Amino acid sequence: MTQQPTDGAGQPTTDAFEVRHTPEDNRYEVWAAGERAGFAAYVVDGDRITFTHTEVADRFEGQGVGSVLVRGALDDVRRGGRFGVVAECPFVAEWLARHPDQQDVLPD
Predict the structure, then answer these.
(1) Any idea what DSSP says for residue 6?
(2) Measured in whole angstroms, how far is the alpha carbon of residue 16 from the centre of its chain?
(3) 3 state SS of 25
(4) What is the dihedral of CA 25, 51, 75, 100, to 10 degrees?
(5) What distance in Å separates the CA atoms of residue 28 and residue 22, rounded to the nearest whole number?
(6) Which of 20, 27, 88, 104 could be disulfide-bonded to 41 (CB atoms 3.0-4.6 Å)?
(7) Distances in Å between the alpha carbon of 105 and those of 36, 42, 50, 64?
(8) Are strands 48-56 and 35-45 parallel, antiparallel or unpaired?
(9) Which helix (DSSP H) or strand (DSSP E) does residue 94 occupy?
(10) What global pTM score does this model have?
(11) Where are the alpha helices (H) located in 28-85, listed in sequence order?
(12) Structure letter (DSSP) for residue 99
């Protein structure tokens, strides 16, 4: 098994993974060493993007991959400046609750 680079707290560094937006599939994907490690599905309705489901492959569980995925997806949404985020997915909702500095993407 390939070891991913980690930060001082033992969490994977964001440069160990690549978050890709695949709008044709309505999802963000996280990749590690050429392998899709997970995805976050969404639907768009007007000026809202609703994250509905997040999944991480079993072999990447417990490595912080879901956090890297959500952060990357939200950073992309933020850069686009078109959508407010609705966190229907429990993982995304819990992640946002733990990261108040990232809640600027939530609609007013």
Answers:
(1) B
(2) 14
(3) helix
(4) -170
(5) 6
(6) 27
(7) 25, 15, 11, 21
(8) antiparallel
(9) helix 90-98
(10) 0.84
(11) 65-80
(12) -
Distance of CA 98 to the CA centre of its chain: 14
> What are 60-84's pLDDT values in tens digits?
999 899 999 999 999 999 999 999 9
Q: Which two tokens stand for residue 104?
A: 């600027």
The pLDDT tens digits of the residues spanning 22-41 come to 999 999 999 998 899 999 99
SS3 at position 64: coil
Per the listing, tokens 């969404």 go with 42
Place of tokens 């978050």: 19
* b/e sequence 45-60, b meaning 16+ C-beta within 10 Å: eeeebbbeebebeeeb
Find where tokens 């560094």 sit: 13
In three-state secondary structure terms, 61 is coil
Q: How far apart are CA 22 and CA 12, in angstroms?
A: 23
Task: Read off the tokens for 87.
Answer: 């966190």
